[in-house]
Structures are given as structure tokens and as C-alpha cells.
Recover the amino acids of this structure.
């Protein structure tokens, strides 16, 4: 117990406590659970992109014409670029625990701002790299199948892809707004 | 798990276990959630000792870790409960507006104290809790990162507020 110079300090320090104790086993289990959660979060970030890259790799190897190979080559490049960007920009970082309160709040806000920038700029690092592949695919398909019904199907597919791009962008903008609210919250309590 | 990490944790739990529970009470009113929070603090402490470099005292490190877990908890809860938090200056004014309450409403000094603490923003909450735990201004500055002048001003404000609140409570009852 520290020094008591004020009766209110005594009121505070004399409050009954339960004497909660945690065994080493429980602590290890809790810590392991936390580490697993972080590991699975990181794994999830990469697996989807790597599966897509593998799939495009298969199409690249089995493709017969140059334009198809260029298309799938561009998609593979885009997926690898996205994985690298996810690793560089998107990975959640653990904040140091033993820093003072002001530093801790500043680091936390910095991390939220970094995450906000990542989702706000999803167009540049996630969606834009996929565009060349789709453009080359569209050109190649239009040259290969020169009939109106094929072009109509192609237009429909491109419209669906464009729609998906908009959905992904909107979801990320929503995430950015959510992060902004968390930053505002943090500013309000500092 | 390293033996040094284990040893530091055991020392921390033994010496500061009760203080950690008191701090948890200041961050969470619900008894079940509070137990979870105490456990979260213990796990955070154990994990943190892996990186403890001795550049600050063990006590400062423990309070920093515990307060940072508490602040994260407050921020999480604020998002779900939408609780409005205030600074010391605002609390002084708000506390004045409650002076007309009956002695029966304000009977329990501890509940009243807890009520005041739980309304504070994390940084001011850290300062008042550290003061109530009996830490000196220099230690509070080390834990919070506030300048000595800033800590002194806040402690002065806390003392005035507590004196006014609790003397007022006694005179009314």
C-alpha cells in the first residue's frame, strides 16, 4: 500500500477486493488463444489471394493463345501485388503495452489512421491492379468471338465485374467511416 | 514461457493484485465484466513482461499496462454503450450541480467516489486513480506521460474536487 494523505485515498484503498488469482496454466491458455487469433487473422488475409493466384496460374499454364496468357499473367501479377500490399499496409500491428498513457493513445490513434488510409485507398492498391487483366481479357475475348451475342455476354460480364468493384469500394468506404468514428471517439476522450 | 517472465508476473500479481482489482472497478461497473477485465489485465501483464527492459520501475510498468488495458476497455464500452465521458474541469462543474441531492442519495462515500471516477475520460481517470492509490506526482507523470506541471495542476484540481464533494457530503449528512 502507498502513502495515504487524504481520507478519500483511504476510502479507495480500503475497498474490499475478491483476490482474483490466475494460475500459470490459465494465463498460458489465454495468451495462446490470443496468439492463435492473431495468426488466423493473418492467415485469412493471404489465403484468399494465394488461392486466386494459384487458380490464375493454372489458367496461365493451360491457356493456348497469347492474349489469354497475357490476361492471366496480369491477374497473377495483380494478386501477388495485392498480397505484398496487404502485408505492407494492411497487417494489424500490436501496440506496445508498457508505454505511458499519452503515448499509448497516440499510437492507437496512429494505427487507426493508418488502417483508415488503407481502406480509403483500396482503389489504388486492390482494385486498380486488377483492371489491366480485365481489359486485356475483354479485348482478347472480343477479337476471338466476333459476334453480337458474344459481345453482349462480354458486356454483361464486364458490368458484373464493375458492379463487384463498386461493392468492394463501398464496403471499404463504410469501413473507413467506422474507423473515422473510432478516431473521433478517441479524440473525444483524450 | 521464460522463468524471468514468470517471476516478474508472480511478483506483480502478488504485490499489485489488489490494486489491479481496484483499477478494474474504476473501469467496469458490472461485476462479471469486471472479473473478465481483471483477467485481461493479468494476461496483458504476463505477456508484457516478455518485453520488460527495466527502463522504468516495475511499478510504473504495471500501472501503465493495467491503465492501457483499462483505457482500451473504456473505448470499447463507449462504442457499445455510447457513454459520455468528461474531463476533470467539466466534472468539477457537474459535481457542483449535484450538490442539491439528498444526503440519502449521496450516503455512500465510496459509491459516490466510484461514480465520479467512472465518468472521467481515460487520461484524467488514470491521474485520479494513481492519486488515490497514493502515487506521487513524479510517478503519475511517468505512468501517464503528462508533464510534471500538468500532473500538479490535475492533482490540485482533484484534491479540491474531492474536498468539496466529500466535506459537502459530510455536512449534509
Amino acid at each position: 500500500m502507498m502513502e495515504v494523505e487524504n481520507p478519500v485515498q483511504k476510502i479507495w484503498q480500503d475497498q474490499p477486493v475478491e483476490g482474483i488469482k490466475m494460475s500459470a496454466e490459465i494465463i498460458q491458455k489465454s495468451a495462446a488463444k490470443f496468439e492463435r487469433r492473431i495468426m488466423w487473422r493473418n492467415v485469412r488475409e493471404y489465403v484468399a489471394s494465394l488461392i486466386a493466384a494459384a487458380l490464375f496460374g493454372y489458367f496461365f499454364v493451360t491457356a493456348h493463345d497469347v492474349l489469354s496468357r497475357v490476361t492471366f499473367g496480369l491477374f497473377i501479377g495483380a494478386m501477388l501485388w495485392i498480397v505484398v500490399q496487404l502485408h505492407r499496409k494492411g497487417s494489424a500491428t500490436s501496440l506496445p503495452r508498457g508505454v505511458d498513457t499519452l503515448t499509448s493513445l497516440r499510437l492507437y490513434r496512429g494505427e487507426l489512421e493508418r488502417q483508415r488510409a488503407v481502406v480509403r485507398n483500396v482503389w489504388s492498391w486492390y482494385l486498380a491492379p486488377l483492371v489491366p487483366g480485365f481489359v486485356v481479357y475483354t479485348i482478347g475475348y472480343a477479337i476471338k468471338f466476333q459476334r453480337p451475342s458474344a459481345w453482349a455476354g462480354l458486356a454483361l460480364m464486364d458490368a458484373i465485374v464493375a458492379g463487384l468493384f463498386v461493392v468492394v469500394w463501398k464496403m471499404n468506404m463504410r469501413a473507413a467511416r467506422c474507423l473515422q468514428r473510432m478516431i473521433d471517439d478517441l479524440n473525444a476522450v483524450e | 514461457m521464460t522463468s524471468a517472465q514468470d517471476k516478474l508476473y508472480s511478483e506483480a500479481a502478488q504485490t499489485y493484485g489488489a490494486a489491479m482489482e481496484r483499477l478494474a472497478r474504476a473501469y467496469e461497473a458490472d461485476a462479471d465484466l469486471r472479473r473478465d477485465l481483471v483477467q485481461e489485465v493479468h494476461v496483458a501483464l504476463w505477456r508484457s513482461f516478455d518485453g520488460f527492459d527495466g527502463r522504468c520501475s516495475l511499478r510504473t510498468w504495471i500501472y501503465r499496462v493495467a491503465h492501457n488495458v483499462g483505457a482500451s476497455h473504456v473505448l470499447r464500452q463507449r462504442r457499445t454503450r455510447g457513454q459520455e465521458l468528461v474531463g476533470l474541469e467539466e466534472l468539477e462543474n457537474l459535481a457542483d450541480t449535484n450538490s442539491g441531492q439528498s444526503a440519502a442519495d449521496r450516503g455512500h462515500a465510496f459509491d459516490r467516489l466510484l461514480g465520479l471516477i467512472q465518468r472521467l475520460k481515460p487520461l484524467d481517470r488514470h491521474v485520479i486513480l494513481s492519486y488515490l492509490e497514493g502515487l506521487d506526482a513524479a510517478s503519475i507523470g511517468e505512468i501517464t506521460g503528462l508533464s510534471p506541471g500538468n500532473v500538479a495542476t490535475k492533482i490540485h484540481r482533484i484534491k479540491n474536487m474531492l474536498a468539496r464533494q466529500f466535506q459537502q457530503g459530510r455536512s449534509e449528512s
